[in-house]
Amino acid sequence: MLNPSDFIDPGGLCAFLAVTCAGCMWKRFLLLSASFSFLWAGGGEGLADFILGHVKDSYDWHITDIPWGKNPDGSTHYIPISIPLPRIIYHPKAGLSVFFVKGHTPAEVKAELEARGLTLTPEGKIAALDCEPIYDFSFTKTAFQFLIVGILLLWLMRAAARTYQQSLIPRGIARWIEPVVLFIRDEVARPTLHHHAERFMPYLLTVFFFIWLSNLFGLTPLNSNIMGNITLTFFLALMTFILVQVNGTKAYWEHIFWYPGVPIPLKLFLMPLEIIGVFVKPFALMIRLFANIFSGHLMMLSVIGLIFILAAALKSAVAGLGIAIISVGLGLFVMALETLVAVLQAYIFTMLTAVFLGSALEESH
Predict the structure, then answer these.
(1) pLDDT of the residue at 46
(2) Beta-carbon neighbour count of residue 353 at 10 Å?
(3) Which of 195, 196, 245, 253 is deepest in the core (most CB within 10 A)?
């Protein structure tokens, strides 16, 4: 078998990616800081709206706004740069309808929806004007980005697999993927799952690469927050929960409901604790991944927000550029930290999944 050290050390690979991503993104951050300071000196949305608009899910993929002319009241007019996503609505009477909304502001979107017999609730959800229950199958920003990451991951893995059809020596993208695969197999799967390792490697690798790629995608200036959406982390944790329970051995269930080798009073005491533990484990997986990624995005946006606050308070783009010097330094540190967290959270989720599976598959001694 090939050894990762023959090509690239996994630890060195992670360090190299962290330095590379942080280094290539400082220019992006500097440009964003400079442009945002000018935007905010002239007006625009509030800081809280800007931050919440980034971390919240939405029906369109809004990237940024470009100042373009003046409004009738003299304020700066902004043109949104966004990708409209299809609205897929099923109404019991009107049937299935698929359409795009051209507007971006809540007022524009609501006006277009009302023309179709729909409306926008205060929570941002679509509802029928006639109060009939509807079924909303629309693509949201997170769902669309989820699909993009999935397609990208499938393309990368197929490209790596094709290289092995030509030669056993990895080339191209396979030189980067193979050390990671071997690391997950040798350092995560085999120590915890033993002879079951090969059986669960596809799931572990899928989880690891999907979380890692999603987190790296969230570091780009494309308004992405995939793993900062608790619905998605809940889904990943649920898949792990189902996999653990389905593959649980007799010894696993015996340790939950009737702990062996202890007095009956202690068995009765441990039973509710073990049952709670069954649900706490996936809950911890869900919250750990969501909280780390979500807080990282808030931290990054707050650092950028320092530029906005000063520029808006002093009504001066120069002041915004002045504070940008400090924000760039903080931003570089946060980006480097987030690049490390991107792979670290993928590793932790995969490792804990393997540990939970290993405990469920363990036979009685």
Answers:
(1) 58
(2) 28
(3) 196
Query: Which regions of the chain does DSSP assign to beta strands (E)?
Result: 60-70, 76-84, 87-91, 95-99, 118-120, 126-128, 135-136
Q: Do 133 and 148 have their domain in common? A: no
pTM of the model: 0.79
pLDDT band of residue 92 (cuts 50, 70, 90) is confident
Indicate the SS3 state at residue 70.
strand
Q: Is 64 helix (H, G, I), strand (E, B) or coil?
A: strand
Residues 126 and 167 in one domain: no
Q: What is the DSSP letter of 119?
A: E
Dist CA 168 CA 206 (whole Å): 22
What is the C-alpha to C-alpha distance for residues 289 and 234, in angstroms, rounded to an integer? 10
Residues 122 and 181 in one domain: no
Closest CA to 357 of 242, 211, 280: 242
331 and 294 within one domain:
yes
CA 349 to chain centre: 13
Domain that holds residue 222: 4-31+141-361
> Which range has the worst mean pLDDT, 191-195, 247-251, 260-264, 347-351?
260-264
In a domain, 243, yes or no: yes
DSSP assignment of 154-193, as one string?
Answer: HHHHHHHHHHHHH-SS--TTHHHHHHHHHHIIIIIIHHHH
Token code pair at residue 328: 């760039």
Mean pLDDT of 138-167: 89
Please tell me whether residues 133 and 145 are part of one structural domain. no
Find the mean pLDDT for residues 250-271: 89
> Do 249 and 361 contact (CB within 8 A), yes or no?
yes
What's the total number of domains in the chain?
A: 2
pLDDT tens figures, 175-223: 899 999 999 999 999 999 999 999 999 999 999 999 999 999 888 877 7
Domain termination residue (choose one: 111, 138, 165): 138
User: By mean pLDDT, which of 98-112, 146-160, 236-250, 273-287 is the weakest?
Assistant: 98-112
Q: Which residues of 252-269 are buried (b: 16+ CB within 10 A; e: fewer)?
A: beebbeebeeeeeeeeee
Which residue would you say has higher pLDDT here, 118 or 34? Answer: 118
Q: Is residue 8 part of a domain?
A: yes
